[in-house]
Specification:
4 copies of one chain form a homotetramer.
Chain A: E1 4-9, E2 28-35, E3 41-49, E4 55-62, E5 66-71, E6 87-105, E7 112-117, E8 119-120
Antiparallel strand pairs in A: 1-6, 1-8, 2-5, 2-6, 3-4, 3-6, 6-7
């Protein structure tokens, strides 16, 4: 199967505010990880900012043959990611995974969506 | 021509509910396959979840020199994919194909769209 | 510079109907080509369907050091592409170009957008 | 870490007009750059048009271990990029970076979004 150990997402932004019922219509910025291997993946996410040093790693687990869609707006340890501020992220995994970036923006009355496969490292 | 035997889509989510006339404005999650070769493609799609084992394969055919846009919300055999739940998918084809992922979300009054080329396997 | 001779876009659909002033808010499906070389590019686009053979090539030119954003809904020769029907496309160029796919869907009152870099051939 | 010296974005268009509070809901076309290396990146952006020669380079800096999300609609030197006109861009950096393209279109009452990882050069 396909997969990479490193992925990068240059775009990141948690919209301030939401419209509609939570949690499904809450504005969110998500990193979707697929671990199609038969080994659990330990994942470390580092978050980069415009004017200060990176924070992290945020440690996550994606069990074997599972997908996990992590919302940056729910990250807490080592610290929450501020809303309304540009960021970027690098995802590193000890087993090969596939990574996709999705945002749901419900600041205005109707929601908007974006998504892209992240950039794979070598 | 270009094409790969394996593709992965880490993002998957069938929105619950729709607004507007069906089927064109029904919320849907689609895997678009292009078979530009001169041989029919037999495709197997495996669907991964957050907290239980994968299901599938869903078997599909894409004839030679045709495109097929399959909606995950219409998958039935071996079982329907639940709405409102995170999933991911792996697409395997016996001839090289190209794969793109698209969602139309019409839960709110105006529709939102996302799309990305899937991640190709080696 | 970067660029490829062949690109594929499995997703294609010209929405039926639009809301808002034309041409900027007319629903459209676009293939954006960048020719950053110093030679004019002759481009041939072949369109694939669900249940009938491909049509084309649609011949286009992208001059040296220029970009052209072609709307599938304005293709006429050899024949227009029907609205409301799934299609896919393959783009072949005699000099290396870069290709991105974008849709603006204004069927409902507010517009929706999708975009992805196309899949490059070998 | 991953990254490339050259990136291309064939799609470019600065919507004319916006709805909602500025700057966060102003229509914008953005190039998001991540420099995960420990060296500052000097970046040159060249912008291509439909019917006239390219302009640039627009010179930007992305410090070591930082991300910068540059809005094409705020480019000023050597000259502003016109709104309502198709363009494309090539991004060249002296250290490896990762590049993503995002548009927020708020011409109509509710905003629309698109995003994709740019096309990496060799």
């Amino acid at each position: 199967m396909t997969g990479k150990h490193t992925w990068a997402i240059p775009e990141g932004y948690i919209p301030e505010g939401s419209t509609g019922p939570e949690p499904e219509m809450e504005s969110h910025e998500t990193v979707c990880l697929l671990n199609a291997t038969d080994e659990d993946a330990t994942v470390e996410i580092t978050v980069y900012f415009t004017d200060r040093g990176p924070i992290g790693p945020y440690e996550k687990t994606v069990p074997a043959e599972r997908t996990r869609h992590f919302r940056f707006n729910e990250f807490e340890d080592p610290e929450p990611i501020p809303t309304g501020e540009d960021f970027a992220s690098v995802i590193e995994s000890d087993v090969p995974v596939v990574c996709q970036h999705t945002r749901l923006d419900s600041r205005q009355a109707e929601n908007a969506l974006l998504s892209t496969i992240a950039h794979p490292g070598e």
